[in-house]
Amino acid sequence: MDEKKVLVDVQHLKEYFNINVGMFKSKPLKAVDDVSFQIKKGETLGLVGESGCGKTTVGRTLLHLYEPTDGKIIYDGQEIKSKASLKEFRKKATMVFQDPYSSLNPRMTVADIIAEPLDIHKLCKNKAERKDRVLELMGYVGLNSEHAARYAHEFSGGQRQRIGIARSLAVNPEFIVCDEPVSALDVSIQAQVINMFDELQEKLGLTYLFIAHDLLVVKHISDRIAVMYLGKMVEMGEADEIYNHPLHPYSKSLLSAVPVPDPQVARANKRIVLEGDIPSPLNAPSGCPFRTRCQYATEACAQSMPEFKEIQTGHFVACHRVNEIN
After folding, report:
1. How many helices (H) and strands (E) does the chain have?
2. Cβ-contact 38, 29 below 8 angstroms
3. How far apart are CA 311 and CA 235, in angstroms?
4. How far apart are CA 281 and CA 32, in angstroms?
5. Could you tell me if 233 and 226 are in contact, meaning their C-beta atoms sit under 8 angstroms apart?
6. What is the DSSP letter of 268?
7. How far apart are CA 309 and CA 32, in angstroms?
8. First to last CA, the chain
9. How confident is the model over 280-298, as pLDDT tens digits?
């Protein structure tokens, strides 16, 4: 893993949205607040956290669907800043959206939906080449050639997501942000789609940022897992390491809620229930954002945000008391 080169390097990324809070006053909503991580070529980084923690915003800001407030996004050694670098980046990095219902244009046929990136980037010389490429992409994701002339509303959720995945592969990308790509699908279909992501990664040498809130899904597909809470990164490490030895109290709570198929193990497992509600990112707590729901919180946790530091090789945690509580 270590000898592979870093493909995506995100440094101190911030994404603030100005929210109106009354008479001509606005306040920044810190959706992503000083997040840094790297993804190596051919690797899958799973990004997890509860709804509203900023994980989707990380994915969208990374692809410049939102203009970053601050921080650097470096792709393959080059910082993405200018319009020219962004245009090149858009050919190499694409996104699979969460909702296969709203992310496909209902007025376009499947062939036109999949070919849209080819048309925008002028990647096909003629109609025959375009048609061949569309059929090749449909083959990758398990769709038949007769599906090409149909419209998105004629398909099930799983098939629509496959159309979305085929579209994201059209420009021959190296990096794909998968924004909860299976959360809107039935469980039986989820497994098929996740296995397809695995196969495509092997076949096409893809690199993924896989955003999800289901830890079982993330464990299955990810090489490393990063845990977010209220716009901050609180823990990151190898998937098995996070799963078997979580160090941050929030990660422990998340993992304690994962269902275990073995009844005896499930009975022995202690569920760590978090007290209180998730605070609003508009009025985030001082210091560590998790302290209002953490049983280990002390005065020091209110004073300063803990540094996101490497506790063991490749295992990063942001917690003042990480050594005491583990």
Report:
1. 12, 12
2. no
3. 10
4. 9
5. yes
6. H
7. 18
8. 27
9. 888 888 999 999 999 899 9
Give the integer Cα–Cα distance in Å for 125 and 145. 21
Q: What is the 3-state secondary structure (H, E, C) of 118-161?
A: HHHCCCCCCHHHHHHHHHHHHHHCCCCHHHHHCEHHHCCHHHHH
For residue 1, what pLDDT band results from cuts at 50, 70 and 90?
Answer: very low
C-alpha 71: how far from chain center: 18
The amino acid sitting at 5 is K
Percentage of the chain beyond pLDDT 70 is 99
Please give the C-alpha separations between residue 102 and each of 97, 99, 105, 145, in angstroms, as whole numbers.
Answer: 9, 6, 8, 23
SS (H, E, C) 172-240: CCCEEEEECCCCCCCHHHHHHHHHHHHHHHHHHCCEEEEECCCHHHHHHHCCEEEEEECCEEEEEEEHH
Rounded to whole angstroms, the Cα distance separating 58 from 51 reads 13
CB 31 within 8 A of CB 212: no
Q: 193-208 pLDDT, tens per residue?
A: 999 999 999 999 999 9
DSSP state of 23: T
CA dist list (Å): 11 to 14, 79, 228: 9, 11, 15
Backbone φ, ψ for residue 195 (5° rounding): -65, -35
Residue 249 exposed, middle or buried by CB count within 10 Å (0-12, 13-18, 19+): buried
pTM of the model: 0.92
SS3 81: coil
